Amino acid sequence: MRKARYFPALIFAACLIVSGCKKSAVSSAVPVASYYMPLQAGRTITYRLDSVTFYYYGQLDTVTKYMAMDSVETETVDNQGRPSWLVTRYLTDTAGINPWTPSETYMVTPTGSDVEMVENNLRFVKLVYPVNTNFTWAGNDYLPYNPYQDFFLFSYDSHINLAEWTYAYQQVNSPFVVGSQHYDSTATVLLDSNYLNAPIVDPTVPASVAYWTETYAKNVGLVYRHTIMWEYQPPTQSGSQLGYKIGFEVTLSIIGHN
User: Which end of the chain is more exposed for a tag (fewer CB within 10 A), N or C?
Assistant: First the structure.
């Protein structure tokens, strides 16, 4: 049996670094990042982070809760020489008692037509122009086949062939509420919504969920993300193995920003 590795709680924003050219969206005179992902050194957004990971046949299911702070650190260039920004994610406990501890650094590359985010050697095209309801694009076009294979033994195509996902804008220029935070103008991106026998009603039947949505507020950035990626295997007929899930769920909710 393959030895599983622990899945980082913050890998939900992952994207693949590759060289060469790919198809791009229609160009915009005003970079989409200036509206929905403003980038400036010293800019921070604080989140509540809740995650669940399902490991080892249900024996090591793990619930984690943090406060996370994404801080735009410095301008740089990516492997294609394009202007980019390095963002460091810091973590502390939900009460904010312990000091902020660096967790990881990722790169954001805004262009006139899209916004790419690279983390853990994986790349998504997060946003594209035009920001219109029902506009679609291949946001996972750069991802390799089975990008989570080092963490989970997924078997369903929706969890393995993520390059086939089609992103779509929903509820553009719509108000959105996250906890006590209210935003007048947001754009929600539905990355994927694939359900099989879920929610689980009959525990003797396999099930799976691949659901990912992100909401961006104008002049703020990402304010909400909800990701569900798990597969369920029913108990064996002999009773030697109970039903179990593998995968993860992550919710990221904004608390505030500077």
Answer: N
